[in-house]
Fold this protein.
Amino acid sequence: MDTRFFVTWMEEITTAVHAGRDRLTRLDAAIGDADHGANLDRGFTAVAEALAARPPGTPGAVLVLAGTTLIRKVGGASGPLYGTAFREMGRALGEAPDVPVAALASALEAGLAGVRRLGGAEDGDKTMVDALAPAIRALARCAGEGGEPEEAFAAAAAAAEEGAKATVPLVARKGRASYLGPRSAGHEDPGAASTVLIVGALGTAAARRRPRTG
Amino acid sequence: MVGIVLISHSSGLAAETVVLARGICGTDVPILAAGGTDDGEFGTSVDKVAAAVEKADQGDGVLLIPDLGSSVLTARLLEQPGSVVVADAPFVEGAVSAAVAAGCGATLDAVLAAAEEARTIRKM
């Protein structure tokens, strides 16, 4: 995947978050403060503007600019968390002009490590980690088997979706939802739900970049 | 003197806590508020916090005291070991306690300890 792919990925995330804004807000209203949809919509809209204004020259630079923009524009906890994830991914990719799936999986792993370090969340705390970690495992597994990027992205999206669904019965141990204690059970975590959109956008970006003929 | 930045979701809460701390500890301590988002909503602005850190920094280090959630994450993004540190402390009590220590000329480590000790002080 080249720089153009990563810009397309960010555009597809912006579209998906905008379309999913009300659902994210509904999920956040149940166990948070009902601003996740609006915050991410504002953040990724700003990312799209920043990328258009100053087109970066490498995949890593796209991700660092996206992360920095999210940190500056989101205002809620998802800004520092997603911002750190993208910045750490970008740093992990360095100056590489082209990124195979295995390198993308490693970069996502660096992003996840950043999220864990900043927020202190572990698996099963009912956070974005519960969707992101299985998605990365699926991506790495597919990369190891030498499959096409599209197959790897589909597997990652399915794993993220499954991980997000699995947050429903959990009791939150991090973030605003953790104040609710056992009452947080029975609701999907909004951060895990937005991670599904972000991971899912890899597939839509790939489909847009490589239109099938015939 | 060690600088202090109070980071709250609410610009009013951060600003008034600064007023309270100055009222108790005097106006010499460089204690600044960084509350709310850039457009005045509830939330945290990394740009506001970074600007306040720069202003509070007299060369002896800066202590960040966040209230909840994204304030804590934003504060942690700006951590620089040895020069910008984050207190895990109750917001009001920690701010007053840290301002008293800073006003006495305490080091960054001591101001951090004063803020964090505020958690153990019982009111009753």
